[in-house]
Amino acid sequence: MGIIKLNGGGEWMNESLTNRQIAFIIFGIVVGYGVLGLPKNVTENAGTGGWFSLLMATGITIIFTYMITYLGYVHEHKTIYEYSNMLVGKYITFIFMLIYIIYYFMLFTMIIRMASEAIKLTVLIKTPVWALCSLFLSVVYYAVIKRLEVIGRICEIYGLIIIIGYIVIHLAVSTQGKLINLKPFFVVEDIQSYLKATLVTIFPFLGIEILTIISFDKKKNNKRIFKYTALMVGFIGILYILIVESCISVMGVDGIVHYKDALFATIRRVDIKSLEFLERIDGIFLIIWIMGMFCTASIEAYGSIFLMSKWFKNIHFNLLAFIVILLSFIVCHIPKTVNDVEKIMDYLSYGTLVAAGFIPATLFLITKVKKYDKKTK
User: Fold this and answer.
1) The domain that contains 91 carries what CATH number?
2) At what angle are helices 147-174 and 262-269 packed, to 10 degrees?
3) Can you tell me where the transmembrane regions are (predicted)?
4) Which domain, by its residues, includes 126?
5) What's the rounded mean pLDDT across residues 231-248?
6) DSSP string covering 22-57
7) What is the model's pTM?
8) How far is residue 73's CA from residue 212's CA, in Å, rounded to a whole number?
9) CA distance 79 to 215
C-alpha cells in the first residue's frame, strides 16, 4: 500500500499506486462523459465502418499511453511537475502546469454540471440543479482529500462494476438489434473517410494524461506497467466498439445521428421482457453511468488540486481542495443552458490534444534526446 509522507518542510510527497490501480485509474477517467455521445459521433463520421475508426483511435491512444507511462517509469518518484522542470525549465513548466490545471478544473466542473442535468431530467425532475451539483461536489471533495490511493481503490471497485454492467447491458441490447443495420461492415472505397473519422473517435479516449501526475515506483511498478496500461486502453477500445455496434444494431445509422445522447436513447428503447430485472435497463445504466462520472470527476479534481498544491505549498491540501471545489460550484453555474455546457466541453476536447498529445510527446522526445532513460538504469 502507498503511504503519504511529509518531508522536512511539511510538503506532501508524491504518491504511488499499484499497476492494477493505475490501469483502473485510466478506465475511471476515460470511460465517463464521452460515452453518451460516442455512438452518434462515430456513426455520423464513419457510418457502419465506425468500428475500424475506433480500432485506429485505440492504436494511436496506446502509443501516447506508452509515452506517458515511459516518462513516469524513467523519472521514478517524479510527476510531470518535477521532470518537466528538469527537462524544459521552470518557465515552460509554468505554462504546462497552467494548461493542465485549467484543463482539469474546467473538465470536472462541466462534468459535474452535465451529470446533475442528466439526473434532474431522468429521475429527480423537481430537484434543482444547484442542489445536485452541491451533493456531487461534496462527495468529490471527500474522495479528493482522501488522496490518490483511495481514489485508485474506488476506481478498482467501481471499474469492475461498470465493466460488468456495460458488457451485460450491451450484450442484452444487441439481442434486440438487427444484423442488417450493421451492414456493410467495411467499404474499401470509404477508407479515407474512416481515417478522417479517427480524429473524432480519438476524443473519447482522452484522459490518459492523468498518468502524468502519478508517481511511479519501480519496486511497485515494474516493466509490466506498460502491459497494464496498454491492455486497459485496448480493452476500452473493444468496449467502445461493443457499445457503438449494439446501438447501431437497434437504431440503425439513420436513427442514431438524430440523438446527442444516442446511447441513452437506444437503451430507453429496449425492453427485455424475458429478463425481469433487465426489463427496464435504462435505470441500471443510469446508475452505472453516474458511477463512471463520479470516478472521472474525482480523478480530474484531484489532478487540478494536486498540481496547484505544487505551487501553493504553504496551504494545506484539504483547505486548497475546499477552495477549488467551492470555486467549481460557482463556475459550473455560469453556463445558462446545457447547450452552453456542451460547447465548452467541445472546446475542452480539442484542448486535450495538447494535454494528452503535444506536451507528453515533447517531454518524451527530450527525455530520449538527453538519454535520461540510460542515466536511470
Assistant:
1) 1.20.1740.10
2) 50
3) 21-39, 51-73, 94-115, 127-145, 157-174, 194-216, 228-253, 283-303, 315-335, 347-367
4) 19-359
5) 90
6) HHHHHHHHHSSGGGTTHHHHHHHHHGGGHHHHHHHH
7) 0.86
8) 10
9) 5
